[in-house]
Amino acid sequence: MKKHLFTKKLSFKHSLLLISSLVVITLLSSIGFGVVELGHKAVWQCVTQGCEKSIYDTILWEIRFPRVLLGFIAGFGLALAGALMQNVTRNPLADPYLFGIVSGAGLGATLTQFLPVSMQLVSLPLASFLGSLLAVGLILIVLYQNNWRRIEHLLLAGVAVSFLLSSLTTFILYSGDAFSSNRVIFWLMGSLARADTNALLLISPVIIIATLIALLLGRQLDALLLSDDSARTLGVKVERLRVITLILCAAITAVIVSYCGGISFIGLMIPHIVRPFVGITSAKLFIAVGLVGGCFLVWVDVIARTALGGQEIPIGVITSAMGSLFFLALLRKM
Amino acid sequence: MSPFVLQANNVTWSAGSKNVIQNIHLQIKTGETVAIVGPNGAGKTSLLKCLYGEHSDYSGNIYLHGKPLKALNNKDIAQKVAVVSQHSESAFSLTVLDIVGMGLIPHKGLFDINTDADKHNIEQALIKVDLIKKQHQLFNTLSGGEQQRVLIARAIVQAPDILIMDEPTNHLDMYYQHQILMLAKSLKITLLITIHDLNLAAQYCDRVVIINNGEIVADDTPEGVFTAEKLTDVFKLECAIDKNPFTQKTRITFAGINNRVNDESKWLQS
Predict the structure, then answer these.
(1) Which residues in B lie closer than 8 A to residue A225 (C-beta atoms)?
(2) A4–B52: do the CB atoms touch at under 8 Å?
(3) Looking at residue A283, what is its pLDDT?
(4) Which of A153, A174, A189, B114 has the lowest CB atom count within 10 Å?
(5) What is the pTM of this model?
(6) How large is the greatest C-alpha to C-alpha distance in chain B, in angstroms?
(7) CB under 8 Å to A49, separation ≥6 — which residues?
């Protein structure tokens, strides 16, 4: 029998209060960190009364705040996608990265890098979505061929799809011109440097709509947690629900990857951190996981842009390092 | 209104080229407790899966309250039929309350939220199965008997017309076997149960259906179907029939493997 460390949970209201406080603190305090040290007093003054110097206005509200917001929304989305995938597959190791969805979106996004910049506003997220749908499609073919019975094979199928699509991306980069390839390689490692109004306007509605759909599907997703057969006896159309959920994950991942690159393992880690506090049923988990995931990515970005002074570390490098260790620790516990 | 909750007319279901069940005619009346018994691989679970819509690729007709099962969607079926099946351990830590609450799913639309009446129903179901004090405990940490009671509580919340139970007494000790069946009977709804213990079937069921090689070979009261000749023919073991001194119900006692009536198991005796 597995040991359950946290059998006594905080009430959802208390957990949500705690997490909401974390969100407010994160959003307000993280904008103070950066190459230019403003100090918390100056930041507080900017928030409450307006900035003392106009340069502070520019740094805080035009550079850092959009970036912090983008980080929060991207972290929210990636963590939500992870929780959705883990619940819909009953696999605690599921994550958009390990299932090849990030690689699919990366492939689509890479292809658009060779188009003129003016065409990228629409083509970039669209190509990312098509790429991630390709990954989901390949996984669904594997599932369909074994008659949906071997859910545990999903992870292996995802890893294989991830390698396949990543190798295609690498080949495209190898074949392209060195300048473009270098730019794409840095972006594929994950960065919030592209934060601007366009990014926020494109990503936010997708994440908000995806969250609402996830919440509406929550009850049916809960039914899947025991077994597929059990869910069917409760009136759930299991296969249809699984396809809808995976497409939802593909859409979330695609818009994030198209602007922030390949940020891995957030979807794996955050649901595991949050579950002991709010339980595993979908609606509560999705909200809590999204908020914590948002905060997490904001702080990882703070590390990414301050740890080496003026030089930015790709954010995906940090999440990969943390995520890999977390993955190994998780396997040890299972 | 049909007097039958479930009705199967000439139902055949195949896995590959093999007919797992064939030419099944079965009628379950409202309020009856019916046991389906038979050797391993006889087709009991496959028959149940056809009856609750898990297998839809059967030939013949199945009716739920007189309506063709194939014309009903999953949700319609789930509002009338609850299933307690053999379950596997979940990778996630579901609590008792999480699972019992799932019983509401067939009655809720996408935009519905849980009402106070729903919470009351869940609480009453937990009281009924005597698990109210363990509602926050993790399902995986409960004993086999308690886990079955959680699934029965989920079925109570589901408020079905018929409860189908697939081998509910498997892996349970004597006390819990009787407890689970008594609990199911106390719900006072139509019950359809597959079971290996013939004495439990005789004690708790109004009717017993014997299935062998995918076909129904007997369908009557326990006294009517549990004859030495019939059981020896189906289970390939000699048996004696008498009365349980406590309940006065039919009691079946099988002889050991040495008295097998065919020579399939000679290798065991060498």
Answers:
(1) 90, 92, 94, 98
(2) no
(3) 87
(4) A174
(5) 0.87
(6) 66
(7) none
